[in-house]
Design goal:
This protein has 490 residues and is an alpha/beta fold. The protein has helices at residues 15-23, 29-47, 55-70, 113-120, 163-171, 187-192, 227-232, 242-252, 291-306, 318-335, 339-345, 348-365, 371-392, 417-426, 428-436, 464-476; strands at 50-51, 82-86, 124-129, 141-142, 146-147, 176-181, 196-199, 212-216, 219-223, 234-239, 277-281, 311-314, 396-401, 440-448, 451-458. Helix 10 runs antiparallel to helix 13 (371-392) and helix 12 (348-365) packs across helix 14 (417-426).
Amino acid sequence: MENQHPAAELWQRTATDLAAAIRTREVSSVDVVRSCLDRIEETNPRLAALVDLRPEEALADARRADEAVAAGAELGALHGVPVSTKINTDQRGHVTSHGVAALAGPPAQDDAACVAALRESGAVLLGRSNAPSFSYRWFSTNDLHGRTLNPWDPERTPGGSSGGASSSVAAGMTPIAQGNDIGGSIRYPAACCGVVGIRPTVGRVSGWMPPAYADTPAGRVQIDFPPTVQMCAVEGPLARTVADARLALDVMTAPDLRDPVGIPVAPARLPQGVKAAVAVVRGIGTVKNHPAVERAIDEAVARLTAAGHEVEELDGLPLLAEAARIWSLLIYEDFRPMLPLVEKVGDEDIRTSLAYSFAAAANEWGERPGLETYIQGWARRATLVTRLQQLLGSDRILLTPVSAELPFEQDADIAGPERAAELVAAQWPMAAVPVLGFPAVTVPSILDDGFPVSVQLIGGRFAEDRILDAAQVIEDGAPDLRPPLPLGRG
């Protein structure tokens, strides 16, 4: 796939290329940031992907980056390259709003660990990406910042919760965006917008954030993350190319023992040139794939086979089905204590979406699963983690759909309880992975009627290199992916 043209404007060039060009003084960081700001001015008013833009602050950082190059200073891997951060992640001096006006308090005093790692690499932090209220939808709309559109088709979701990240990267506002994923919130938006998104193994990229506090009648209390956030949520990058996603992941992999599940050292590189065995799981017997989803898998299989990978088809994989079901227990029971706050300060869309989501979970687990059921869910999760790692071993990966459906129509999750339940069923590939903590990447495979359709690759724990290598093979054979101009079809 051709990622850029020699005469491309700076905003069109990859992060890998820009970092090298800034380092050698072929281009300046100031010029790169100005090019991205021009692209933001051109596209963001319609897409509403980035918020809290501070051009002068970004240009000042870019000037300092150029001064460091001129002084011969030691430079980080993303020195001078623009990157966006998400509105639910702390960035020093910016509000962590979660898309909720009542939560948009004072600016953060410190960076989250993943943001600090990006800053340490020399990245220029340019804009905050939009997300749904409380970051709990596969859509990216909230009353505080509005609705983010998909640059390929405004009638379809850009994904969520990192929908502002995916939309902005696809449109060329920044080459890399930081996101997070507890139920597909990096992988699904990336797929919806035809970019690459990787959720790392839990613990590889630190999820540490400065403590949050809430004022209660009993006084000020610290808000602690529930088990699913600690054990299932990850930080990771979205990018236009596999190479850029790998570069950003390397930058964000900074050992941090403040994270309760953080690992003390960066994982060792896997040997290069090893061809992973690929097991294809097209479904789990609960929902039929859209024909374009099947074609995307077929094309990915053909490219991997041609590149020398041994590929086999599995007739389902029950442990993935069980993992997706357990996700709906653990995630929603951990979120249940938040429902009074959502009712009080959340917008109508998030209240409706959560009501339908809890109803779908109740079909599996009953209206109010008890403590014993919850504990059994965590215990069963451990067994499934072991079984999947045994299945994958040291050299196997899984190829799955991203979703059984193409990107959903906007607000499909609040169209009614039946449609919301269909979405949950279609998203089994998004739900199964986080509860197990394994790494996964989504990469575009085909264009269907002018719209990108992606596939997902799942690897063993800390085997990000292996799935990125396979994703590169798929990307190399994919069509050139550029959203139509003018943006969208509407």
